[in-house]
Amino acid sequence: MMQAAARAAAEFTPRPNVLGVTVLTSLEAADLETLGLQASPLEQVTRLARLAKQAGLDGIFAARRRSPRFVQPVARISWLLHQGCGPAAPVRPTSVEF
Fold it and tell me: Can you tell me whether residue 54 is helix, strand or coil?
């Protein structure tokens, strides 16, 4: 699905950025376990970020407290967006290694 989104974006000029969503802010480890995932939220964010990069996505959306800045570096992305971005906190592209 992520690869298809990246391919579809390439058909537009200018090409839009395609971002993947990682772990919802409201989900905790117990919620992930209920979903059949045996990973902490930080581990899951890292895993999904790696998959997004491999699929050709331009970046990810992650909760600030689960920012890949705090997990083991695994990939290079162009965009990392956090929740709560709005007029008081404008969205700025961020290059983050994770």
Answer: helix
Paired with 20 in beta bridges are 60
Could you tell me the pLDDT band of residue 22, with boundaries at 50, 70 and 90? confident
89 DSSP 8-state letter: B
Domain 2-97, second-level architecture? Alpha-Beta Barrel (3.20)
Any idea where the domains of the chain sit in the sequence? 2-97
Cβ neighbour number for residue 57 with a 10 Å cutoff: 22
Whether the predicted pLDDT of 21 surpasses 60: yes
Report pTM: 0.71
Question: What are the beta bridge partners of residue 80?
Answer: 60
